[in-house]
Write a structure and sequence with these properties.
This protein is of the alpha+beta class. The protein contains three helices and six strands.
Length: 114
Amino acid sequence: MATIFSGEKKQSASLDNISLKGCLLQLEDRVSLPAGESIDLHVHLDPAAPDFDIKVKGFVVSCADGQLAVEFVEVGLESFQHLLRLVQFNSENPVDIENELSQVAYNIADLDKA
């Protein structure tokens, strides 16, 4: 389960897919969030232990047919450690995760234009 915070609104979703850079969520309510909107996302690893939530800041990549694609832009250290363990645990090839960590997530030339 996950909770999406967008402005003053909050909604629940289920996690369909997750990587170190983003995720795909199934929305419980068929609401639409515009591409580019900033959100906060809490992925609940254990509903009884909110201290273990993965808390990220991201933006909406797309929202259609009850699915929300999110790209992560900020992940705290503790949340990143939980995210990394989750992705490694569910990966068929943990070496791929190590390779993903060594790749630059963004084109530096594009950052200079922003």
